[in-house]
Amino acid sequence: MIYSMTGFGRELLEYNGKKITIDIRTLNSKSADISTRLPNQYKEKDIDIRRMLSQGLQRGKIDFTISVENEQNVNPINSTAVIAAYKSFADDCRKSSVPISETDNSLLSSLIRMPELQLNGSDELTDEEWAAVESAIQKSINHCCEYRKEEGRILEKDVLSKIDSILDLLERVPQYEAERISVIKDKIRQALNELNINDSNSENRYEQEIIYYLEKLDINEEKVRLRKHCEYFMDTVRFEEAAGRKLGFIAQEMGREINTLGSKAHHAEMQKIVVMMKDELEKIKEQSLNIL
């Protein structure tokens, strides 16, 4: 079972006359890239929140937000901070010759909605409130994990179908191998005939060249390794969690075998099969970037 790194989790909490909303949004990333937006009251818990997010979600670009509304559905604002922010912004605009209307309320409207400029009751966070919020954060993380699990099912179905496509294409390769060897034999024979060499030495040379090319262009090992890599990929998808990086490495190994098949093909139809394999593999690599 694989998990996607795309997820969303929300939990609502009502505590002491306040409505607290906790939102988590995640996207793919190579590491845990956590961004938090917290009201002043909860900033002291930023490190604890980041630790919870890192442990619960492991990897991805994680945007975490806590918003608080009082029971009248209007947040009291820190008037002094709002006025100071407004004046500072207006001064910067004038210095930069950016026109700003003194009667334009859109700036004030935006400022009073900023969590940093709102008062959410007491500035002191009690142990009881934090315990309630902490529990709600964990529930939000659980919701996000469930979302990721559902997205992972879709990813799993998609990447496994593409692995099946690669294996189906691989099964089409043998039908062209005999023809490919026959063409190589004819080319070598034609080259010898053009040199007008028909003695026993030329026949021996012909046999040596055939053996050389049969060994050099043999693709049995590549076919076996590619099939094994595909099977390993499928087993990893089905039985391991948080295997995104591992799947990326396996896909790289699959790409090496497919490229070698292409370089040894010397046959138009086999080259077409190789191109189709590469197309399916690129889609797998793109999807693997979003696998946890």
N-to-C SSE series?
Answer: EEEHEHHHHHHHH
Beta-strand residue fraction: 5-15%
* Class per helix and strand makeup: alpha+beta
Give average pLDDT, whole number.
Answer: 86
- Using only C-alpha atoms, the radius of gyration works out to 32 Å
- Enumerate the strands of the largest sheet in spatial order, edge to edge or round the barrel: 1-2-4-3
- Terminal residue distance: 11 Å
Major sheet description: 4 strands, mixed
Q: Level of helix content?
A: 55-70%
Multimeric status of the protein: single chain
What's the count of strands? 4
Per DSSP, the total helix count is 9
- Uncertain runs: none
What is the approximate shape?
A: elongated
Summarize the structure.
With 292 residues, the chain is an alpha+beta fold. The protein contains 9 helices and 4 strands. The chain is elongated, with a radius of gyration of 32 Å.
How is this structure best described in words?
There is one protein chain. The chain is α+β, with helices and mostly antiparallel strands and 292 residues long. Among the domains are: 79-112, no CATH class; 151-288, no CATH class. It contains nine helices and four strands. It has helices spanning 46-57, 79-95, 106-112, 127-171, 177-194, 200-216, 220-239, 244-265, 268-288, and strands spanning 7-15, 18-27, 32-37, 60-70. A four-stranded mixed beta sheet has the order 1-2-4-3. Helix 1 links the parallel strand 3 (32-37) and strand 4. Helix 5 runs antiparallel to helix 6 (200-216) and helix 7 (220-239) packs antiparallel against helix 8. The N and C termini lie close together (11 Å). The mean pLDDT is 86.
